[in-house]
Amino acid sequence: MDERHPRADRSTLVLPLLIALLVTTLGLGASVAAGMTLDRTQRRAAEQAMDRRMDLVSQAVSTEAGRYVDALRMLAAAMGAFEQPTDARFGRVVAPLRDMRLAGATSIAFLVPATDEQIPRVQARWRERGLPDLVLRPAGADRDHIFSVFSRSLDGRRVPAVGIDFTEVEASVHAFAEARRSGRVAVSDTYHLLRDRDLPVQRRQLSFVLTAPVHGPPDARGRRPFVGWVRLGLRGQDFIGATLRHITQGAADVRLLAHHGASPPVTVATLTAEAAGRRDLRRSRRIPVAQRSWVLELRAPRALLPGADSPLPAVALSAGAVVSLLLGALTFTMVSGRARAQAQVVAATAELHAELDRGTAREEELRAARDELASHDAYLIQILDAIDVPVITCDTDGVVVHANRAAREALPDTGGRPLTIAEDLAEPALAYPDGTPIPARETPLAVALHGENVDDMEVVVTPPDRPRSVIMVHARPLRRSDGRVTGAVTSAFTITALREREAELRAFAGIVAHDLKRPLTAVRGFAELVHEDLSARGGHEEHVAQLDRVLAATDRMRRLIDDLLAYAAARDATVTPVRIDLTALVRELLEEHLAVAAPEPVPRVEVGDLPPVRADAALVRQLLDNLIGNALKYAPPGRPAHVEITGRHCSGGRVCVQVADRGIGIPAGEHEAIFTGFHRAATTYSGTGLGLAICKRVVERHGGTILAEDNPGGGARFRFTLPAADDASPPSGAA
Predict the structure, then answer these.
(1) DSSP class of residue 426?
(2) Which distant-in-sequence residues (6+ apart) come within 8 Å of 397 by Cβ?
């Protein structure tokens, strides 16, 4: 064997090796630079996303607080327009507040001042104005008192008692004094409302009240005498939770702080994100509310913000390193290939001439070369794994055959056990957009194994120890040439940022609706004042008729806005189940309808004993209000409405309720269509066509069903189900 050939072979490898090292070094340097640039870009994106979220949260709180202040200011102006305020007039004025769904609002009250000497005279005056049983109960003597005379509940609980002296609550006394002094709406310090003191300690919330002064009509000198106050109670935690839960999307902690003079700030309410992680991004901002300034704090983990915790920098660095190594190896192979081939041929020839029995060893070297080629294929698989779109395949038994890198990061750890779609890729990790877990038989891969295509299926993914995300999934069956299914493949991409943008748009829609209602409320308020004044004077029948048309138009516009908001709230509002006395709620709604409408001839209404339910009080009130209002409204002309409301326990721990009438009935073929939005079966009656669509959403949000059918003997009959209260399980043998 010629000894010159090995030395000549080693010398020919020096230059290719240097070139390959240079190419590899340049590639690694470029990969590191790209990874660092992407990381800095992500950090800037996280800071900007946090600023945008702080802007959205502070705007939502400020706008919602302004909505409460405006509503109270309008209510004070309406009460001040009456020469003699009465309990009935107060009820009509505050009725729209229930439809506004004021988050956290507990009650609305009208209060008047009185000294010790004035108490008998003040009590007699307000007894004459609709409160014959009113008893003013002073808290102490030798002081100025503030008594509640009119009161209405806004949270579905019992109506607060009247005659209470609110000077015993020091936090609210300062607000009354400030409102009377400044003539504007004032907010109190935080405290526990009187009506919440009978609740368990763990359920009490720090609350506050908004107070607005009421001045009566001007006297001969044009001065408006002070009459009293209107007072709105708000629970801080409910206010913040309802205002911000959809906006934060469970990705940030929110805390509302109030300053009480020189004392340290008091935490009014908190909203804590469910996801774990260090809150390394923080923002705070002052929010003006009436005469005070609150502080809003926002904390969020950087990893939960859109685009802030992407694996792209690491992927870019890893992929760049792999590509650099491959390029170096390819460069070395191409440059040194010819010299190595010649040296290998010479060496092989010399060995063949020297020793034929080394053929077996040469075959082993060839097999090693084939193994090296296989390792090159593995590198190609790593490059494919750098793709950020998750891809999963399974066989006909539902066992996962292959999952690329993006898919493996999202899959659960089974400790070496093969992944299956029945045990690992279904509930609880996968859920529908409404939060319902997806059973194994309904997962995309399972559907594809049955030969069906899956397109644009929206799925909520909650992997262990990782943020919740929303993905769009596609799945296809894998078939042989004869058409038989041999497996399935699925792919997905995230749409979390898109859904967060939709949440922001819903919040913006609520703000726009509020801005539409403010001028509409002002127009109606002033039109009512002018209408009442012209009617009292007489001789202005033409102008009064024109004002009637203005008021009717504002009513139609307000109903449309309210129905649109109620329709959205019935789908998106948080459901807070409480025990509801259906019998008391139905009778209260009937009194309101009959007091406001005063129909002629007088309707005949029969209400049976309705079992209690456990549901959201505001949504159930909207449901029954719509059904009862329709039953009273759609009576034949000239005939009194006849309504029967009954209920019973039914199977599955539910209560079945039936609202039947003897009205005009439902046209044939429209018994299901009436539950769609903007569908109106009777166009001669007023309405927006959203009432029954709201009813359907409310019932379905509680897991129930609702249907409409003809009432034997004439009219319509609506039947729906709601969850029974915990203490009202069906008796033995209930249907």
Answers:
(1) S
(2) 420
Q: How many CA atoms lie within 13 A of 247 on its CB side?
A: 25
Same domain, 549 and 474: no
Are 674 and 554 in the same domain? no
Residue 135 identity: V
Q: Would the pLDDT of 481 be above 60?
A: yes
Alpha-carbon distance 230 to 131, whole Å? 17
Could you tell me how many helices (H) and strands (E) the chain has, helices first? 15, 22
Strands across the sheet containing 706-710: 604-607, 642-650, 654-661, 716-723, 706-710
In the β-sheet with 207-215, what is the strand arrangement from edge to edge? 145-153, 105-114, 226-235, 207-215, 186-187
Tracing tokens 């240097």 back to the chain, one arrives at 18
User: pLDDT digit string (tens) for 223-265?
Assistant: 999 999 999 988 888 887 777 776 776 678 888 888 776 678 8
Residue 72 counted as domain residue:
no
Pair (228, 179) in one structural domain? yes
CB 75 within 8 A of CB 94: yes
Specify the higher pLDDT residue, 298 or 341.
Answer: 298
Q: Which domain holds residue 472?
A: 391-494
Query: SS3 for 163?
Result: coil
404 located within any domain: yes
Q: Whole-angstrom Cα distance, residue 504 to residue 545?
A: 43
Give me the residue label for tokens 């549901």: 615
Local structure of 718: helix, strand or coil: strand
Is the pLDDT assigned to residue 478 strictly greater than 90? yes
Q: Is the pLDDT reported for residue 374 higher than 80?
A: no
End residue of a domain, out of 494, 524, 559: 494
Q: Are 156 and 617 in contact (CB under 8 A)?
A: yes
Give the tens place of pLDDT for each residue, 533-546: 778 777 777 877 87
What percent of the chain is modeled with pLDDT above 70? 79
The number of angstroms, rounded, from the C-alpha of 656 to the middle of its chain's C-alpha atoms is 28
- Residue 169: CATH number of its domain: 3.30.450.350
For residues 616 and 577, the answer to whether their CB atoms sit within 8 Å is yes
Residue 316 and residue 34: Cα distance in Å, rounded? 7
State how far the Cα of 617 lies from the Cα of 527, in Å rounded to an integer.
33
Confidence of residue 147 (pLDDT cuts 50, 70, 90): very high
Q: Is 713 within a domain?
A: yes
pTM of the complete model: 0.47
- Structurally, the chain folds into a number of domains equal to 4
**How many C-beta atoms lie closer than 10 Å to residue 491's C-beta?**
19
pLDDT tens profile 673-687: 888 755 455 445 555
- Phi/psi for 606 (5° steps) reads -120, 125
| Chain CA centroid to CA 729, Å | 31
Task: Give pLDDT tens digits for 8-56.
Answer: 456 566 777 788 788 788 878 887 887 788 777 777 877 888 888 888 8
Query: Which residues on adjacent β-strands are paired with residue 266?
Result: 258
- What confidence tier does 305 reach under pLDDT thresholds 50, 70, 90? low
609-619: average pLDDT: 92
**Whole-number Å distance between alpha carbons of 522 and 94:** 15
CA distance 598 to 18: 99
